[in-house]
Write a structure and sequence with these properties.
The protein is α/β, with parallel strands linked by helices. The chain folds into two domains: 242 residues, Ribonuclease Z/Hydroxyacylglutathione hydrolase-like (Metallo-beta-lactamase, Chain A, 4-Layer Sandwich); 147 residues, Flavodoxin domain (Rossmann fold, 3-Layer(aba) Sandwich). The protein is built from twelve helices and 23 strands. A seven-stranded mixed sheet has the order 1-2-7-8-9-10-11. A hairpin with a 3-residue loop joins β4 and β5. α5 crosses α9, α6 runs antiparallel to α7 and α8 crosses α12. This is FprA family A-type flavoprotein. Pfam families: Flavodoxin_1 (PF00258), ODP (PF19583).
C-alpha cells in the first residue's frame, strides 16, 4: 500500500491522485487527472489539513494511520468544505471520535449540513491562533475563494500557508509532490484553467485574500490540488498568476470562438484571424465551440484581451454551443475585454443581434463593426471581416 510522503520532518503529504474521473465538478475535463491533497502536521498535537474525496478514503486512511504512528489525531482543520476535500470527514470522525473539527462559523454550518456532525466542532474567527506545541497556526478567513467558508491556515514557525483550493491546479502528481521534484511549468496552464473555470467569478474576493496574504512571509504553499510550492521563484509565480487573473488582466492576443454547421461561418473566423496576423498579432487562438471543451476556451479568454465571437443563426437564436459559452462567460463576471463579433444566416438573421445584446450585458468594449453574412462568403463580407480583424489589432496595439 502507498505510504505518506514526508515534506518536512514533521509534515507529511497524505493526499491521493484521481486518474479515473472524467469531469471535475461534472463539468470540466480532466485529461491529466487531479490530485486531492491532504497534510498531517505532527507536533505536540497532531493536525490534519483537509481530507480527500470519499472515493479514495481507503488509501487516505491507510496513509494517515502510518503518518500518525499510533498517536491520536487531535485536530482536523477544514480550509474548504467542498466534498472533494471534506468527503471523508464523516468516516474520519467515526475512526477518530475524539478529533476536534476546526473551522469558522460557516464551516460548522456546512459540517452539520453535509455530515450531521455538531459535537466536537471548534469554531474559530479571523486571526485566531492554535498552538500545536512548536508550531503555531493562525487562521485567515478568505470568503468566496471560492466558497463562503473558505479560509487559509498559516504556520508561523515554518512559514507555510495551507491555502485550500487557492493556487491549485488540475493534473495529478506523478511521483513528485513538490516543485523541486517535477517540472512546474507543465502545471501553469492547468492552474489558469482551474482558476478561470472554478474560481473565475470571484476576482474581488481573491484580491482581498491576496492583500491579506501579502503581510505574511510565505516559504511554502500547500494547496489542496496540484504541487506543493516551495521554491521562492515558483511561489511568486503562482501568486502573480492569481493576482493577474483576479484583476482580469489579459495579455496581447485574441480568442476567436465560433460555431459553424457547414463551414461558412468558419470561413469568416479564418479571415478575421488572417488579418490579425497580417497586423502583427501573434497570439491568435481559434476555437470551434462544437469541438473544443468550453473549459479551454474560457481559460484562453482569461489569458488574452481580445475576444471575437461568431455564430450562425439557429432556430432564430444563436448556435446552441455559442449561446452556452456566452452564458459561462457572463457567469464569471469578466471585465476588461475587447469584443468583436460576426454572424451568418440563410433566410432570417438573429445571431448578430443577440451578440450585440451580449456586448451590452457584459459591458465589454466593442471593437470594429459587426459583420453579418447571408448564406456564403462574398467580396463584401470578406472585406468586412478584414476590417474587423484590423480594428481589433489596432486596439490591442494601443496598449503596447
Amino acid at each position: 500500500m502507498l505510504k505518506p510522503i514526508p515534506i518536512k520532518d514533521d509534515l507529511f503529504y497524505i493526499g491521493v491522485n484521481d486518474r479515473t474521473k472524467h469531469l471535475f465538478e461534472n463539468l470540466w475535463p480532466l485529461p491529466k487527472g487531479v490530485s486531492y491533497n491532504s497534510y498531517l502536521l505532527s507536533d505536540g498535537k497532531t493536525a490534519l489539513f483537509d481530507t480527500v474525496d470519499i472515493c479514495y478514503s481507503d488509501i487516505f486512511f491507510h496513509k494517515l494511520e502510518i503518518a500518525l504512528s499510533g498517536r491520536p489525531l487531535d485536530y482536523v482543520i477544514i480550509n474548504h468544505m467542498e466534498p472533494d476535500h471534506s468527503g471523508s470527514l464523516g468516516l474520519l470522525r467515526n475512526r477518530y471520535p475524539n478529533v476536534k473539527i476546526v473551522g469558522n462559523k460557516r464551516t460548522a454550518d456546512m459540517v452539520q449540513g453535509f455530515y450531521g456532525i455538531t459535537d466536537g466542532v471548534m469554531v474559530i474567527d479571523d486571526g485566531d491562533e492554535l498552538s500545536l506545541g512548536k508550531h503555531n497556526l493562525v487562521f485567515n478567513l478568505t470568503p468566496m475563494v471560492h466558497w463562503p467558508e473558505t479560509m487559509m491556515t498559516y504556520d508561523t514557525i515554518d512559514k507555510i500557508i495551507f491555502s485550500g483550493d487557492a493556487f491549485g491546479t488540475f493534473g495529478t502528481l506523478d511521483g513528485g509532490i513538490t516543485d523541486t521534484q517535477l517540472h512546474p511549468e507543465r502545471y501553469y496552464d492547468e492552474m489558469i484553467r482551474y482558476y478561470s473555470n472554478v474560481v473565475g467569478k470571484f476576482g474581488s474576493p481573491v484580491q482581498k485574500a491576496l492583500e491579506k496574504l501579502s503581510a505574511l512571509d510565505i516559504k511554502m504553499i500547500c494547496s489542496t490540488h496540484g504541487p506543493v510550492w516551495t521554491i521562492d521563484e515558483q511561489i511568486k509565480k503562482v501568486i502573480s498568476i492569481y493576482d493577474k487573473l483576479s484583476r482580469y488582466e489579459g495579455d496581447e492576443g485574441v480568442v476567436i470562438a465560433y460555431g459553424s454547421m457547414y463551414g461558412n461561418t468558419e470561413q469568416m473566423a479564418e479571415t478575421v484571424a488572417y488579418e490579425l496576423a497580417q497586423q502583427g498579432i501573434k497570439e491568435i487562438i481559434l476555437h470551434n465551440v462544437s469541438k473544443r471543451s468550453h473549459s479551454y476556451i474560457i481559460r484562453d479568454i482569461f489569458k488574452y484581451k481580445g475576444l471575437i465571437v461568431g455564430s450562425p443563426t439557429y432556430n432564430n437564436k444563436l448556435f446552441p454551443e455559442v449561446e452556452y459559452l456566452l452564458s459561462k462567460i457572463e457567469g464569471r463576471d469578466m471585465k476588461h475585454r475587447y469584443f468583436g463579433y460576426f454572424g451568418s444566416f440563410t433566410w432570417a438573421g438573429a445571431a448578430v443581434k443577440r451578440l450585440a445584446q451580449f456586448a451590452l450585458d457584459t459591458k465589454f468594449e466593442v471593437i470594429g463593426e459587426p459583420v453579418e453574412m447571408r448564406q456564403a462568403m462574398r467580396h463584401d463580407t470578406y472585406d468586412a471581416c478584414i476590417s474587423l480583424g484590423k480594428a481589433m489589432a489596432e486596439r490591442l496595439k494601443q496598449d503596447r
